[in-house]
Amino acid sequence: MSVGKEFIKGMVRENPVFRLLLGLCPVLATSSSVMNAIGMGVSVIFVLVASNTLVSLLRNFIPPKIRIPIYISIIATFVTVVDLIMAGFFPDLHKSLGMFIKLIVVNCIILGRAEAFASKNNTFYAIIDGLGMGIGFTFSMIIIATIRELLGNGTWLNMPVFGTQFEPVLIFVLAPGAFITLGFIIGGMNWLDHRRAAIATKS
Amino acid sequence: MKEIFKFALVLGLVTGIAACALGVVNQITQPRIALQQQLALNAGLYRVLPGSENGCIIEQHLDGLNMYYTGYLNRDTTDFIGYALPVESKGYSSTIRTLVGLDSLRNIISLKILFQQETPGLGTKCEEVRPGETEPWFQYQFKGLFVPDVALDKNGGSIHCITGATITSAAITDAVKESSVKLFSEL
Amino acid sequence: MDIQNLLIISVGAIFISNFVLSRFLGLCPYIGVSKQLDSALGMGMAVVFVMSIASLFTWMIYYYFLEPSSANLIFKLFRNQLDSPPDLRYLQTIAFILVIATLVQFVEMVIQKTSPGLYRSLGIYLPLITTNCAVLGVAFLNIDSDYNFIESIVNGFASGVGFTLALVLMAGLREKLEMANVPKAMKGAPIAFIMAGLMSLAFMGFSGLSFG
C-alpha cells in the first residue's frame, strides 16, 4: 500500500461523486455557486478526516455488532462541531448552505469510508484516505459549481466573467441545471474511458 | 441478554462522551454566534435608521406586536429618526425576515432583508445589486413610499416584481405593508 | 384543525418543492433503486412510512427535550435546580440521527416478526433508509418551518409521497429507456440524471400554484 496511491485514488479512479455516485445530495444542492461548493467541500474534508481518524483509532474497541450506530454518533458529533463553528465565524456561508451542513451526517461518503476503509486500516492511512476522498469530493463540487455559476450567473467566485453583454442561462443555477450538468460530466467521463479502452485494445 | 446490556452501555457511553464534547464546543461558540446575530441585526438597524449609529436605538414592545425599535440621532433619545420594524413573511421556500425603517409621517425610510433562502437565481434576486449600483434594486424601490401606497405593479402600485419570483416579491411587499399599517394603528 | 393549511403543506411537499426534484434530498436511492418499477414502489412505501413516524418522533424529541421552552421535560423534572429551560438545540443533529437509526431498526424488527410477506418486499430497503438524507431532511425542515405536531406528521407523510412519486415516475421512464438507443457513454446514470433534470424542469411548472 503506497501513500501516494491511497491519496490519489479519491481524485479520479474512485472519485466519490463522478465514479461512485455517493453523497450526491449536497453536490447538487450546494453547487449553484463556487463559494458554496468550497465551503461545503472544506466541511466535508474536515468531517471525513476527523471521523476516519477516530474510527481508525477505536477500531479494535468498537463491538462489530453495534459499529454503525457508533460511527453515526462520531460523525454527527463532528458535523455539529462544523455547524457551530461555521455559524460563529462564517455566518454568511452558514446561511447559504443552511440545512445541508447538518445533512453531512447522512452523506454516504463519510459512513462509507468509515466502514470500508478506516475500520480496517491504521490511523495514518485512514487520514490519507480521508484527505484524498475529501479533496476528490471538493474538486468535483468545484467543477460542477464552476459550470453552473459561469453559465447560470455569468460569474466565477462572484467575479463577473463575461461582461454585461452576457445573458445568464438561468436554468443552470436552478434545480434542473444541476441534474443536467452532472449527467453530462459523468457521460463525458464514461466517453473518455471508452476511448482509452478502445485505444488500449488497438495497440 | 448480557450482550445487549454491554452494547447498551457502550452506546450510552459513546453518546454521553459525544454530548459532553458538544456541550463544551457549544459553550465556546455560543457567544460568537450570538455576537454574529447581534452584528447582523445592528447592521440592518443602522441601515434602515440612518444616523442612529451615532445616536441610539431602543427596543420597544407593544401588546399586539412582538416588538419594534425606535432610533434617535442623539444618545439622550432626542431628535427622533423613526421606527424599525422586524417583519416576517412566508416566501416561496423560506421564511423571509425583513427590517423596515419608517418615519413618523408613515413613509418608508429604507428596507433591509436580513434572511432569506429563496430559489437561487430567482427569489434570491431580492438581494441582487445591479452592476454600477450600490443598493439592491428590489429593496431600493420601497424607499420614500407612503405606507398605504405600497403595492406590486400588477396590483396598481409601484413595486416592480422580480421576474420569475412573484411569490417572493408579493410575500415581502404584502408583509411589509401589513405590518407597517398595523404598527401605526397601534402606536 | 385547519384542514386548508394541511392541504397547502401537502401539495407544497409533493409537487411544488418536491423532495427529490427541487430540494435535492434522497438522491442516492433515487438513482440507485429506480431501475425497476416494483422495487421503486417498495422503496417508496418504506420511505413514506419511515418519514411519517420519524417526523412524529423527532418533533417530540425537539419540543420536549431540546428546545428551551416551558414544555421542556428536563426543565419540568429539575425545576428546583434550573432557573431557566436548558437550550440543548446543539444536540439536534446527533439526537435526530440516532432516533431515526433506532426507529428504522425497530420497524425492521417489528415487520420481520409480524408480517414476513411485507418484510420480504420492504426489508431490503429499510437499512438503506437510515442514510437516506430525505428522512433527516424532513425532520430538520419540520423544525425550521415551525410546524406544529400535526403539521409535522402531514409534512413527513406528504414529503414521502412526493419522493415516491418522483421515484416511481423515474423507474417507469427507465424501464422504457431499456428499449431506447442511448449513446454508450450516456447509458445508466448519466441519462438518468438528464431525465431527472427534465422532470425537475416539468415540476417547476407547479411553482405557479400559489395559495392566497
Descriptive report:
- The complex is a heterotrimer of chains A (203), B (187) and C (212).
- By secondary structure, chain A is an all-alpha fold.
- Chain A has one domain.
- Chain A contains nine helices and two strands.
- Chain A has a two-stranded antiparallel ribbon with strand order 1-2.
- Chain A is globular.
- In chain A, 51% of the residues are buried.
- The mean pLDDT of chain A is 90.
- Chain B has one domain (46-186).
- Chain B has three helices and five strands.
- Chain B has helices at residues 2-48, 137-140, 166-186; strands at residues 56-60, 68-72, 80-90, 95-102, 108-115.
- The longest helix of chain B is centred in the first third of the chain and has 47 residues, at 2-48.
- Chain C has one domain (9-208).
- Chain C contains ten helices and no strands.
- Chain C has 212 residues and is mostly helical.
- Chain C starts with a helix and ends in an 8-residue tail after the last helix.
- Chains in contact: A-B, A-C, B-C.
Regions with little confidence, pLDDT below 50 for 5+ residues of chain A: none
Helical proportion of chain C, percent range: 55-70%
Taking all Cα atoms into account, the compactness measure Rg of chain C is 19 Å
First and last CA, distance of chain C:
19 Å
Rounded to the nearest angstrom, the radius of gyration of chain A is 18 Å
Tally of DSSP β-strands of chain C: 0
In terms of per-residue confidence, which ranges of chain C show pLDDT below 50 for 5 or more consecutive residues? Answer: none
Shape assignment of chain C: globular
Provide the spatial order of strands within the biggest beta sheet of chain A. 1-2
How does the overall form of chain A come out from the CA principal axes?
A: globular
Secondary-structure element pattern of chain C, one letter each: HHHHHHHHHH
Question: Mean pLDDT score of chain A, rounded?
Answer: 90
Number of helices of chain C: 10
Largest sheet of chain C: none
Look at the helices and sheets of chain C and give the structural class. Answer: mainly alpha
Q: Main sheet of chain A, how many strands, which sense, barrel?
A: 2 strands, antiparallel
Derived from helix and strand composition plus strand pairing, the structural class of chain A reads: mainly alpha
Whole-number count of domains of chain C: 1
Number of domains of chain A: 1
Q: How many helices of chain A in DSSP terms?
A: 9
